[in-house]
Amino acid sequence: MQTEERTMAYGGGWLDRAAALRADPEWIAARLTDRESVVLPLWRDHCLVGPDGSPVRRGVAEATELLAAADETVFLGLDAGAAVFAVDVSARTEREARELAAAAAAVDVRALAGGLRPAEAAVQAYARGLLHWHRGQRYCGGCGAHTVATGGGHTRTCTGSGCGRLLFPRIEPAIIVLVEAPGEPDRCLLARHRGAPEGSWSTLAGFVEVGESLEDAVRREMAEEAGVTVVGLSYQGSQPWPFPAGLMVGFRATAASEEVQVDGEELVEARWFSRDELRERVAAGRPLGRADSIDHHLLGSWLADGD
């Protein structure tokens, strides 16, 4: 197992999430009147950004109207002792949301990631994921009654008589795998997914199912999608992917044979690539996956191993 820790995009957030404090509603209320506290506004899963393209951050004193208009206000954590909140103004039109936040535009977090410090991108993604969960959990799945935010926005509680169910944000784990060929020369398996442009190749991935370990999911997904039996799994790292609720867990594995048979559903094509072929693609301006994705890290690390 790889022991070196590597921080992926949207990981490494600097906030102290203050779990022992956020369950205290009086403490939360006090932070919402503390002039040191900061508010991050979001609209329908988009960051609200200023004229310079950076995410809007408002002090509580200048965010009175924004807080009053918010559909949901959640506590994210403490930054050097100052509370950081995220507010959702999704019920407003985009124009109204921009006016409330004195913002120039609403932009997807993923479009901003390359221009933000990693920890700042992590906090924006964290805010996006938590607010998205709240919008989808307005009602109890057990009795159908309304739910209300509790725990500083990290839980929701059912208001139904005799129910009172406590709901927690859910994470959807997925595995993503760089599969290596069993013999020389060194090669890795890349696939073209249905709907992807011609010549667009990526590593293989899939969601973990109920009752599976991560390793079980790797073996099943590789067999189902590419007809490949894998051995020698090794953990490479993980990445929060709150778009809307993913957690990507990266592995390397070795194929038992070079035979590949795609399923024709998820994948339409798969083949082995040498390091030289990947370097040629990079030189021709074809990126190794999304720059903010663990896919990019897996491929970049594999290339570096051959230097």
Radius of gyration: 22 Å
User: At the fourth CATH level, what is the homologous superfamily of the largest domain?
Assistant: Nucleoside Triphosphate Pyrophosphohydrolase
CATH architecture field of the largest domain: Alpha-Beta Complex
- The number of E-state strands comes to 15
Q: Number of helical segments?
A: 9
Q: Estimate what percentage of residues fall within beta strands.
A: 25-35%
According to CATH, what is the class of the largest domain?
Alpha Beta
Quick structural overview:
This protein is 26% helix and 30% strand.
Give an account of the 3D structure.
This protein is α+β, with helices and mostly antiparallel strands and 307 residues long. Helix content is 26%, strand content 30%. The chain has 3 domains: 19-135; 137-170; 172-305, Nucleoside Triphosphate Pyrophosphohydrolase (Alpha-Beta Complex), CATH 3.90.79. The chain has helices at residues 19-22, 25-31, 64-69, 94-101, 109-112, 118-135, 214-226, 275-283, 294-305, and strands at 38-43, 46-49, 58-59, 72-79, 82-88, 105-108, 147-150, 155-158, 166-167, 172-180, 187-193, 204-207, 230-241, 246-255, 267-274. Strands 1, 2, 3, 4, 5 and 6 form a 6-stranded mixed sheet that branches. A hairpin with a 2-residue loop joins strand 4 (72-79) and strand 5. The radius of gyration is 22 Å and the shape is globular.
